[in-house]
Design brief:
The chain is an alpha+beta fold. It is built from 4 helices and 11 strands.
């Protein structure tokens, strides 16, 4: 009868914990945009308590403000939000962030990379195309005679982390979207284009031959 109760034993064990033993570690799942823009999350964790000699498991909920610009596997520390024994300082809550990949945006530091499909005529003639950014749709100018896989930079359209003065950029990778079939008119126009290219190349080759002949005569070389 005079021995310690279960609650007394538990209290002694709990109060004998070091600061590190009172810390709690949990993981939080974030979407790509939640990590980039910042958000508020409710974090729950469970812990064991004994009241009136009854062992029970309780759950604690903490509202956490996730700062903008966090990345996968980063850790946030909330001081004093861990276990509290009633004596000494309470432990800390450590939150490990698990950021999901996005099917469109690809992250590289504070920069964003996206792919934008463009047609052959847009590459050759130049065009204004709509590109999805972190802030919505934005117009982008494609220069005439752009190469397939050309990369265009949209300065200041990347990620801006809390507490950082620098903001990343968005890099747009142009992807040529070939037509599945050509109309008769399209085929005729492309054939005319190809014929003109051949004539230009033939003219350049002829000029090179003429210049080479004149060089041979000037040098007195016979072939």
């Amino acid at each position: 009868p005079g021995g310690p109760s279960v609650e007394d034993i538990f209290r002694e064990v709990f109060e004998g914990m070091g600061q590190a033993e009172r810390n709690i570690q949990v993981g939080v799942n974030l979407s790509f945009l939640e990590a980039v823009k910042g958000c508020r999350k409710k974090v729950q964790f469970s812990y064991d308590v004994i009241r009136n000699n009854v062992h029970r498991r309780e759950t604690k909920t903490v509202d956490v403000d996730i700062p903008a610009g966090v990345d996968d596997d980063m850790q946030i520390r909330l001081e004093g939000k861990g276990l509290n024994s009633g004596r000494g300082r309470p432990g800390n809550l450590y939150i490990t962030l698990n950021v999901a990949e996005d099917p469109y945006f690809k992250r590289e530091g504070l920069d964003i990379h996206v792919q934008s499909p463009v047609t052959l005529s847009q590459l050759l003639l130049g065009a204004t195309v709509d590109v999805l950014t972190l802030d919505g749709m934005v117009e982008l100018q494609v220069p005439p005679c752009s190469e397939p896989d050309k990369v265009l930079m949209m300065r200041g359209r990347g990620i801006k982390a809390d507490g950082s003065r620098r903001q990343g950029s968005q890099f747009v990778h142009l992807q040529l979207k070939m037509p599945r079939r050509l109309s008769q008119k399209q085929r005729e126009l492309i054939e005319l284009f190809a014929l003109e290219e051949e004539q230009k190349e033939s003219g350049v080759f002829s000029k090179l031959e003429d210049a080479f002949d004149r060089l041979k005569k000037f040098a007195g070389v016979k072939w």
